[in-house]
Design brief:
Two copies of one chain form a homodimer.
Chain A (H helix, E strand, L loop, with lengths): L4 H18 L9 H9 L4 H9 L4 E2 H7 L5 H13 L3 E6 L5 E6 L1 H33 L1
Helix pairs in contact in A: 3-6
Chain B binds a DNA duplex (20 and 20 nucleotides) through helix 5.
Chain lengths: 139, 139
DNA sequence: CCGCATCCGAGATGATACTG
DNA sequence: CAGTATCATCTCGGATGCGG
């Protein structure tokens, strides 16, 4: 066989892509891929997951300081959604003043695991994409 | 050292998450992670990439048939954006009737490589997330 | 066949002010 | 400190009709 390793990988990737596409319309009537993307694809979810993933747990105000530009409202909404999806835990301490800690669940850590490669890729190839945009803008 | 392999991996993941977060405000003034997510996080880009990744190339009408529910307008807009970012190529054949072929660039295939694990994860854990939502809805 | 331009509604996002 | 409530805004995406 004269098939190279690269060709094998390429074929394998095509096969995986087909498989993912094929998995449309599950029980909820929505393609899982689009569903998940709809969540982490919003403006803040992924950042929240990355920040929570970079430590063990964070409280509300600390998270807000770290996620630059997020409003109080959107942080609340984002965290609630992530909690609903079972990706983060929310722990309230009955103290004065109140304290609320957020942390990733096992599920959330799993998602973090697949999100990180994407973040790394984004960092690595941001220059290439910026360059491609320049080229078009110049034309 | 009594540190387990799992603990090592966890620590490594935290470190990677920190690294990704730290890379904010590049030349374009935008965090690369948010930038990329803004692209593939929209309603159709990721599906287009997956479909293009499952074959060698596709023409406009074929792509439209495969991506269920997409409007002509959004397919055009999505493909143009991907082209601008250097993720897909657009080849026009001067025939009657016209024919336009789309295919992933090397950059696009790289993105496909990190997107597929996410798709696989989404498929694998969609039930868990659905269950988490049920639990909240019941409460 | 392929794609652009225009209009428009829905949902996401943001600013601000107010509570336990 | 950690939200909730309300209102204003803004972008996305869909429908439609025209052009190459």
């Amino acid at each position: 066989m004269e098939v190279t390793t690269v060709d094998n990988q390429a074929a394998e990737i095509q096969a995986k892509a087909k498989k993912i596409i094929a998995s449309r319309a599950n029980a909820t009537g929505l393609c899982p891929v689009r569903d998940i993307l709809g969540r982490i694809g919003d403006k803040w979810s992924m950042l929240a997951i990355l920040h929570l993933g970079s430590t063990d747990s964070l409280r509300f105000s600390e998270l807000r300081k770290r996620i630059d530009g997020i409003s109080q409202r959107m942080l609340t909404v984002t965290l609630r959604t992530l909690e609903t999806d079972g990706l983060v835990t929310r722990t309230v301490y009955a103290e004065v003043p109140p304290r609320v800690e957020y942390a990733l669940t096992g599920l959330g850590q799993g998602l973090l695991g697949v999100v990180i490669p994407m973040g790394s890729w984004a960092n690595a190839h941001a220059p290439a994409i910026a360059e491609a945009r320049q080229r078009v803008a110049a034309a």
